[in-house]
Specification:
The chain is α/β, with parallel strands linked by helices and 108 residues long. Helix content is 32%, strand content 27%. The protein contains 3 helices and 5 strands. The chain has helices at residues 32-39, 69-83, 95-106, and strands at residues 2-6, 9-16, 20-25, 45-50, 89-92. A 5-stranded mixed beta sheet has the order 1-2-4-3-5, sandwiched between helices. Helix 2 (69-83) crosses helix 3. It is globular and about 40 Å long. The mean pLDDT is 94.
Length: 108
């Protein structure tokens, strides 16, 4: 596992494979391991999964009032900046899908 720092929080993430970046966000109360189990291997893609704020091995929680789709989308933007990714396929399940939609609305 690999980590990055943003907003005084240490985010946990994993990268598997080669090709076009595909960042997948997990659902509520899930973590990156569940995302990897769900997706498996995606030929032609670099699958990037992460533990969102307040999930998995990402810590500390941070302020409770910051737990919002907007904050999660901002975290995703910072994560992409950290990885040096300007463009990627963005997806998710449940909470992660809502975060992907918020991110897309903010970054057309």
């Amino acid at each position: 596992m690999t980590e990055f720092q943003h907003d005084r929080i240490t985010f946990n993430y994993n990268v598997v494979g080669e090709g076009r970046p595909f960042i997948f966000s997990h659902g509520l109360a899930w973590d990156l391991d569940r995302s990897r189990e769900l997706l498996g291997h995606l030929p032609g893609h670099r699958l990037i999964t992460w533990d969102m704020r307040a999930h998995g091995m990402t810590n500390p929680l941070g302020p409770a009032e910051a737990l919002s789709f907007q904050t999660f989308a901002n975290d995703l933007a910072a994560f992409m900046d950290h990885l040096g990714i300007a463009s990627a396929v963005i997806g998710g399940i449940s909470l992660g899908a809502a975060v992907a939609l918020q991110f897309a609305a903010d970054n057309p």
